């Protein structure tokens, strides 16, 4: 599978050869079709990182993303009748099928097993190879780590949302909560924001965010980085701290030892957004996003704001899964 994985010994034979051969053919055919369909689109859009495949063939529940000339492949847990060793061999076979079909050297293909999100696992370290490349998007550069974490550091499904932020921050004060590696901050800086404040509990990700900013020439006192829980940060802000544009993109669930209580997006989003709105200027905007599929937005919880769902506009066309995230534009009106 991935380069840091040691296959079982003795080597387990490929399970159900006839079934696997059919699955391989269907998987390869779909990859070829998608690659052909997207052949010209990335170049026209100045995009070098995009989604090629997402469980298109139900029996092959993988996600295949291209990052420059590399492939990043993830598996979503699904029931199957293979033993653990057989499944390992099956996965490696499918990874090789993707590499061959898309003409990518196996050494540039990285595989991750994505399990259902539990606790702090959403940003869990899975290796320590530090295989990083410089990826480009929207005329900007980002450090992407293909080996060490479940996610790479650049969420491809928010490509359009990042552009929306860039288009409206000129001369404005920008806040990025749950900032992760700071991609929204990079876009805000590129959009000539007057100032940026980037907040994440992890020093690792804040350092990564600073590096992404440095890569693009954005340094200086107008860019602030805060290693703190987002809820704690926003509740402790002085009343005089005001922003014009904010991005709030929290995890579905988190139980970090550094916070007093677990974070559950459905339970905690109202308090978070209400507190954030207190620090948003009149006519200012919050972009709020979640990938929790069962999420229910209660617009009545924000009487001083206009809440407008923009999910259909923010999911990129390379994502067959139109429910990859949900996104709202919340404008303070009073």
Structure commentary:
One of its GO terms (biological process) is methylation. Keywords: Methyltransferase, S-adenosyl-L-methionine, Transferase. It comes from Rhodopirellula baltica WH47. InterPro entries: SAM-dep_methyl-trfase, SAM-dependent_MTases_sf. The chain is an alpha/beta fold and 334 residues long. The protein folds into 2 domains: 110 residues, Transcription Regulator spoIIAA, CATH 3.30.750.80; 178 residues, Vaccinia Virus protein VP39 (Rossmann fold, 3-Layer(aba) Sandwich). Helix content is 29%, strand content 26%. The protein is built from 9 helices and 15 strands. The strands form 4 sheets. The protein has a 7-stranded mixed beta sheet with strand order 9-8-7-10-13-15-14, with helices on both faces. Strand 3, helix 3 and strand 4 form a beta-alpha-beta unit. The radius of gyration is 21 Å and the shape is globular. The N terminus is likely disordered.
């Amino acid at each position: 599978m991935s380069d840091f994985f040691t296959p079982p010994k003795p080597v387990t034979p490929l399970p159900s050869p006839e079934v696997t051969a059919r699955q391989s053919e269907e998987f390869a055919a779909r990859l070829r079709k998608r690659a052909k369909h997207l052949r010209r689109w990335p170049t026209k859009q100045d995009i070098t990182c995009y989604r090629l495949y997402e469980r298109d063939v139900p029996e092959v529940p993988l996600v295949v993303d291209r990052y420059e000339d590399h492939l990043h492949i993830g598996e979503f847990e699904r029931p199957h009748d293979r033993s653990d060793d057989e499944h390992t061999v099956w996965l490696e076979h499918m990874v090789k099928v993707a590499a061959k079909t898309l003409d990518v050297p196996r050494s540039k293909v990285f595989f991750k097993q994505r399990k259902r999100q539990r606790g702090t696992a959403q940003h869990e370290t899975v290796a320590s190879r530090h295989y990083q490349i410089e990826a480009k998007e929207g005329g900007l550069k980002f450090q992407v780590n293909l080996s060490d974490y479940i996610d790479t550091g650049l969420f491809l499904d928010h490509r359009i949302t990042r552009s929306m932020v860039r288009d409206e921050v000129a001369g404005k004060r920008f806040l990025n909560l749950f900032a992760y590696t700071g991609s929204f901050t990079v876009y805000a800086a590129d959009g000539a924001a007057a100032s940026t404040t980037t907040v994440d509990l992890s020093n690792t990700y804040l350092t990564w965010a600073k590096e992404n900013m440095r890569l693009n020439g954005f340094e200086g006192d107008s860019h602030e980085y805060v290693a703190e829980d987002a809820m704690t940060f926003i509740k402790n802000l002085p009343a005089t701290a005001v922003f014009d544009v904010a991005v709030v993109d929290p995890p579905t669930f988190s139980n970090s030892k550094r916070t007093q209580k677990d974070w559950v997006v459905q339970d905690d989003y109202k308090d978070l957004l209400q507190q954030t709105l207190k620090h948003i200027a009149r006519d200012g905007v919050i972009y709020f996003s979640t990938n929790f599929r069962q999420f229910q937005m209660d617009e009545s919880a924000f009487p001083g704001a206009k809440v407008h769902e923009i999910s259909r506009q923010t999911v990129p066309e390379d994502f067959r899964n139109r429910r990859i995230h949900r996104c709202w534009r919340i404008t303070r009106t009073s």
